[in-house]
């Protein structure tokens, strides 16, 4: 099978098929024959496209061969943060070299909207611009370059309106994209009054650009009879189909969206690919010619939304040991000019403020500040990191105030071990799978945390300028879309007469390896070599009404759907084999590419060929909907998550207190991927998320000037981590822990939760700064901890009157 990854070989003889019985403990855990049971899951199979990636043969949207007559589009952008457009003169744009057409809002045949939940997101600004970079018109030309040059030639007469640029300003003006939300449990006020100690403060945590390597792109190709095919880089083909149909005034059945893979999405292509898809489709539809719209990096960063920055005001009461007895937080995010996914992001922030800690009496408020900036959106973690970091900040301070090691205070506040109580989240979900104690104990021991702490103290006593810091932070992350109905998925599995297998599912491949995991699931279910299985591009005409590949659920949901489809085919093959060779269908075994029935061993391909002749259906659809979920948005209570994934990391840094430069010298991470479907991919996800999260909290700084223009819109001014920022000593391991929930082969999601692991880096930097003041002053460190922010915090600690050198 050309192009397939090398097979994960099946050495062992037939063994009971694993995991087909729901909920029951794994069948393959039962006493097995001498050899290990055959399995296709749980193996470190290489990424299905690894060879193609390395050879430059993996096709991204811009690599698809262009159809004859293809035109290229570019967007004309607003130069004002908030203004009425009094007049717009596009004559120079029209006259520019190679230009075929120019379109504004009034040319859109259907609805001028691409908002995912609330319809407040115009494709093209209509009279009112709400941020610098907002698309105002589409120009179509014979080349990408001509379109881009022409897009700069518009003359727009603006009447400027007052602009709100920060979340704090939005709060002061009560300017919100949605009504503020609040989650209360217990009586925080009374608990505060009883609390012997309190910490109170403010924190600002910046946003983050997704910085996918492949930018936003859509290629729209008109089809016969009003049809439209859109090839685009998106995590959410069904939503693109929906938006394009609306923009064109068509039905969904007119529009097909396809995505073979993305060069990264990271949440930035969940809703924000819609604008590009819609704009390309509008132009293609009006011209009845193929139109490609590819954003260059600056436009991409100016136009699209990012991770929400958050501002927090917090107050926490605690006892003499550091145990939290009351917590209050008021968060406001920078939503940007429209709602986009800001509501669910804020909800996830509220539901992750607890992180791994039991909070008896809490009052959590969150608001989505409406600002005249890009409309912020999903980014790996989806508000979870923003909720949890505030709590970690507080715990850090409590420990410092009490002169205790922060790890001890963290442990004291963990959700209870099994049977201990203290196991209900503020939103009312009972935690039944808590492993944070065991996991942190294992990491603490394996990383020599206590010895490192002692060594660092000795180092800092002798080192006046370079200061080392250490931190261990835990993660608990809820898995499932917090919008319940999105937790569904579908798949199609085709077994061809030659025994090869083609799988299509609703998930999209963005580099995370979802296709590889699903190939393993299907191979496992049918007991065949991985090399038999191939996954094709995600297409809305194959599996309908899919959810975004997001919320870390890609493999969880689509894996179950694909398993369901493969299972049905296996049942039919088993029934056929039993008819053919005798015995009980339940006794037929599929493993190692061989079907075992009543003492016969039949190669899988041979059985398939025979089954075809006997007119057995060799393909099937599959479906999955996560059970047990519920959510009441009014009270903010329910069971929003299917299960929790856990993890923890230790970081050791050295900070130059004269320049603010720092280095991560060692990082140890332990992550609970359940019974990992593919440990190689999962470790890669943990490593990638760790470094990406470290970038968010350290070097990646978004800055807008006083006129609301994003000034950090290219890699020259926006610093993502490079290879040299990765720690030389980086120890990532998976925690052995079968999922309590009946997830796909008892695995756990891995996409987003590890992004919280580098909290340890941020707090290690804060610890190093804190040593300047003998750990008696809380460094007012904001995120990102850029060199400037570090120096500011060092200066503040020094100004607080603490010794400059802890001698
Ligand atoms: N890994 C790579 N290589 N590229 C990506 O864009 N996106 C992340 C994560 N890992 C991403 C990634 C995000 S935001 C999510 S939600 C998950 O992958 C989605 O994939 P999964 O649910 O299939 O794990
Ligand atoms: N909820 C969530 C969502 O938890 N993660 C997501 O990515 C998401 N996307 C859309 C709506 N709700
Ligand atoms: Mo990931 S932020 O849920 O796309």
Characterization of the model:
The protein has 807 residues and is of the alpha+beta class. Among the domains are: 165 residues, Aldehyde Oxidoreductase, domain 4 (2-Layer Sandwich); 223 residues, Aldehyde Oxidoreductase, domain 4, CATH 3.30.365.10. It is built from 19 helices and 29 strands. The strands form seven sheets. It has an eight-stranded mixed β-sheet, with helices on both faces. Helix 9 runs parallel beside helix 10. The longest helix is centred in the last third of the chain and has 28 residues. It is globular, with a radius of gyration of 27 Å. The N and C termini lie far apart (68 Å). The structure holds ligand MTE, pteridine-2,4(1H,3H)-dione and dioxothiomolybdenum(VI) ion (MOS).
The profile of the biggest β sheet is: 8 strands, mixed
Task: Give the N-terminus to C-terminus distance in angstroms.
Answer: 68 Å
Could you estimate the helical fraction of the residues in percent?
Answer: 25-40%
Q: What is the highest CATH level, the class of the domain at 426-482 and 642-807? A: Alpha Beta
Question: What small molecules accompany the polymer chains?
Answer: ligand MTE, pteridine-2,4(1H,3H)-dione, dioxothiomolybdenum(VI) ion
Rg, Cα atoms, Å: 27 Å
The number of helical elements comes to: 19
What's the CATH architecture name of the domain at 426-482 and 642-807? 2-Layer Sandwich
CATH topology of the domain at 426-482 and 642-807: Aldehyde Oxidoreductase, domain 4
Structural class: alpha+beta
Low-confidence stretches: 1-33, 803-807
What average pLDDT do the residues reach?
95
């Amino acid at each position: 099978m050309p192009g397939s990854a090398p097979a994960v070989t099946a050495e062992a003889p037939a063994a009971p098929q694993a995991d087909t019985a729901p909920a029951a403990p794994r069948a393959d855990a039962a006493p097995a024959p001498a050899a290990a049971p055959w399995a296709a899951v749980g193996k470190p199979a290489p990424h299905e496209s690894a060879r193609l990636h390395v050879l430059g043969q993996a096709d991204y949207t811009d690599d698809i061969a262009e159809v004859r007559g293809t035109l290229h589009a570019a967007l004309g952008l607003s130069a004002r943060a908030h203004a009425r457009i009094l007049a717009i003169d596009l004559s120079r744009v029209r006259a520019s070299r190679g230009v075929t057409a120019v379109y504004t809002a009034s040319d859109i045949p259907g609805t001028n909207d691409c908002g995912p939940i609330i319809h407040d997101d115009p494709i093209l600004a209509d009279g009112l611009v709400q941020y610098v970079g907002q698309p105002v018109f589409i120009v179509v030309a014979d080349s990408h370059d001509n379109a881009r040059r022409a897009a700069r030639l518009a003359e727009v007469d603006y009447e400027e309106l007052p602009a709100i640029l920060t979340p704090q300003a939005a709060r002061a003006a009560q300017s919100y994209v949605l009504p503020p939300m609040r989650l209360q449990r217990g009586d925080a006020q009374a608990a505060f009054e009883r609390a012997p100690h309190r910490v109170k403060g403010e924190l600002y945590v910046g946003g983050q650009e997704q910085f996918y390597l492949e930018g936003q792109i859509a290629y729209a190709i008109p089809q016969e009879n009003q049809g439209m095919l859109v090839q685009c880089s998106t995590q959410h083909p069904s939503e693109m189909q929906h938006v394009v149909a609306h923009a064109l005034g068509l039905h969904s059945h007119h529009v097909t969206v396809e995505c073979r893979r993305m060069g990264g999405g990271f949440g930035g292509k969940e809703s924000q690919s819609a604008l590009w898809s819609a704009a390309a489709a509008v132009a293609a539809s009006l011209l009845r010619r193929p139109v490609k719209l590819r954003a260059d990096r600056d436009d991409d960063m100016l136009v699209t939304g990012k991770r929400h920055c958050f501002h927090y005001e917090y107050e926490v009461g605690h006892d003499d040991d550091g145990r939290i007895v009351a917590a209050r937080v008021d968060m406001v995010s920078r939503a940007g000019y429209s709602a986009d996914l800001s509501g669910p992001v804020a909800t996830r922030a509220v539901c992750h403020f607890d992180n791994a800690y039991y909070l008896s009496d809490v009052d959590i408020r969150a608001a989505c500040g409406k600002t005249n900036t890009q409309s912020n959106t999903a980014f790996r973690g989806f508000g979870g990191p923003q909720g949890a970091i505030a709590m970690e900040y507080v715990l850090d301070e409590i420990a410092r105030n009490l002169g205790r090691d922060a790890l001890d205070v963290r442990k004291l506040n963990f959700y209870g071990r099994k049977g201990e109580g203290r196991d209900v989240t503020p939103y009312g979900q009972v935690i039944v799978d808590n492993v944070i104690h065991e996991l942190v104990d294992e990491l603490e021991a394996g990383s020599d945390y206590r010895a490192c702490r002692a060594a660092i103290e000795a180092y800092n006593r002798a080192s006046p300028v370079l200061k080392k810091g250490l931190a261990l932070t835990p993660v608990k992350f809820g898995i499932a879309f917090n919008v319940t109905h999105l937790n569904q998925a579908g798949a199609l599995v085709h077994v061809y007469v030659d025994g090869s297998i083609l799988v299509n599912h609703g998930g999209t491949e963005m580099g995370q390896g979802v296709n590889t995991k699903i190939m393993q699931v299907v191979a496992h279910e049918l007991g065949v070599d991985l090399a038999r299985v191939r996954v094709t591009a995600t297409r809305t005409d194959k599996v309908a009404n899919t959810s975004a590949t997001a919320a870390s659920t890609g493999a969880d949901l689509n894996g179950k759907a694909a398993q369901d489809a493969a299972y049905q085919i296996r049942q039919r093959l088993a029934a056929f084999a039993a008819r053919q060779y005798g015995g009980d269908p339940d006794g037929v075994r599929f493993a190692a590419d061989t079907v075992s029935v009543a003492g016969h061993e039949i190669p899988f391909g041979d059985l398939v060929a025979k089954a075809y002749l006997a007119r057995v259906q060799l393909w099937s659809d599959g479906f999955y909907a996560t059970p047990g979920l519920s959510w009441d948005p009014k009270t903010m209570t329910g069971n929003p998550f299917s299960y929790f994934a856990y993890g923890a990391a230790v970081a050791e840094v050295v900070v130059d207190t004269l320049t603010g430069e720092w280095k991560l010298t060692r990082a140890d991470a332990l992550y609970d991927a359940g019974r990992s479907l593919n440990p190689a991919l999962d470790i890669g996800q943990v490593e990638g998320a760790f470094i990406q999260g470290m970038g968010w909290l350290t070097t990646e700084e978004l800055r807008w000037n006083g006129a609301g223009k994003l000034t950090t819109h290219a890699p020259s001014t926006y610093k993502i981590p490079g290879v040299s920022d990765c720690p030389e000593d980086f120890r990532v391991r998976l925690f052995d822990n079968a999922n309590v929930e009946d997830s796909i082969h008892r695995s756990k999601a891995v996409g987003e939760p590890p992004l919280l692991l580098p909290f340890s880096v941020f707090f290690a930097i804060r610890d190093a700064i804190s040593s300047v003041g003998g750990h008696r002053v809380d460094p007012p460190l904001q995120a990102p901890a850029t060199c400037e922010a570090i120096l500011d915090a060092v200066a503040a600690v020094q100004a607080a009157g603490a010794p400059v050198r802890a001698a």
